[in-house]
């Protein structure tokens, strides 16, 4: 459900007035409106989301992020698939696949898989952990703004779900050629895909407004 933010001229309010929010796309000023959980406020001129009230509280989101981190560790520490062909068994983790791509002179693909399947999701989850822990402690430390900017920049590069789709297609195709046994990492990747969908739907910009209401943090 969405709620349009109330349009308003700047009137006598100063530029630093917390009641005002500027549209990041068209610069139109709006007055902040109270939102219920799950609601979004959009710019009346261009429709860009200005404010969003998440379904999840910070402590619930931190629990989801920790669960996603555990799934991430399992997904990368264990084999994704085990192939059995004529008595020989081979298995590989995602990192093994990246190293194999690198050794086979496909460095660009190896770097892309590493960045989109490993680095971006891990950096996103670690940054979210630090931000949520700070909010729950009632603080807004110096790294708060840089981490928020980092999340905004790396989110478009996280493509675990694309990787997951590729693994499932490969699994179906390989099942005609060899006996394919799904590994622990495959189930962990499925859990990670679902958890990441929830984590990525959380707009971390709303965290700016939470510390002020807790323990009077600056
Ligand atoms: Zn706008």
What's this entry about, in short?
This is Paraquat-inducible protein A. The protein has 218 residues and is an alpha+beta fold.
Beta-strand residue fraction = 5-15%
Tally of separate helices:
6
Give a short account of the largest sheet: 3 strands, mixed
Output mean pLDDT: 82
Distinct ligands: zinc ion
Give me the Rg, rounded: 22 Å
Strand order of the main beta sheet, please? 1-5-6
Shape: elongated
Sheet/helix structural class: alpha+beta
- This entry's quaternary arrangement is single chain
Low-confidence spans: pLDDT under 50, at least 5 residues? 1-15, 212-218
Number of strands: 9
Helix content: 40-55%
Cα-to-Cα separation, first versus last residue: 32 Å
For the record, the count of structural domains works out to: 2
N-to-C series of helices and strands: EEEEEEHEEHHHHEH
Could you walk me through the main structural features you see in this protein, from its secondary elements to its overall organization?
The protein is α+β, with helices and mostly antiparallel strands and 218 residues long. The chain folds into 2 domains: 2-52, no CATH class; 58-213, no CATH class. It contains 6 helices and 9 strands, in the order ββββββαββααααβα. The strands form 3 sheets. A 3-stranded mixed beta sheet has the order 1-5-6, with no helix packed on it. It has a 3-stranded antiparallel beta sheet with strand order 2-4-3, with no helix packed on it. It is elongated. The two termini are 32 Å apart. The model is unreliable at 1-15 and 212-218 (pLDDT under 50). The structure holds zinc ion (ZN). Residues 23, 25-26, 28, 43, 45-46, 48 line the site of zinc ion. InterPro entries: PqiA-like. Keywords: Membrane, Transmembrane, Transmembrane helix.
């Amino acid at each position: 459900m969405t709620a349009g933010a109330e349009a308003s001229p700047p009137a006598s309010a100063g530029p630093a007035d917390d009641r005002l929010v500027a549209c990041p796309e068209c610069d139109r000023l709006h007055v902040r409106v109270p939102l219920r959980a799950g609601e979004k406020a959009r710019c009346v001129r261009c429709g860009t989301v200005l404010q969003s009230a998440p379904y999840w509280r910070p402590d619930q989101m931190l629990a989801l992020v920790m669960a996603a981190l555990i799934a991430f560790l399992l997904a990368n520490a264990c084999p994704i698939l085990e192939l059995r062909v004529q008595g020989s068994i081979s298995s590989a983790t995602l990192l093994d696949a990246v190293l194999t791509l690198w050794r086979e002179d496909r460095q660009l693909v190896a770097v892309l898989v590493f960045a989109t399947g490993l680095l971006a999701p891990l950096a996103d989850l670690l940054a979210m952990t630090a931000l949520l822990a700070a909010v729950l402690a009632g603080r807004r430390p110096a790294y708060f703004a840089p981490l928020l900017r980092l999340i905004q920049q790396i989110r478009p590069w996280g493509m675990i779900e694309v990787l997951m789709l590729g693994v499932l297609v490969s699994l179906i195709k390989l099942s005609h050629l060899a006996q394919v046994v799904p590994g622990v990492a495959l189930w962990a990747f499925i859990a990670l895909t679902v958890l990441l969908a929830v984590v990525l739907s959380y707009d971390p910009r709303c965290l700016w407004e939470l510390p002020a209401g807790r323990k009077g943090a600056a």
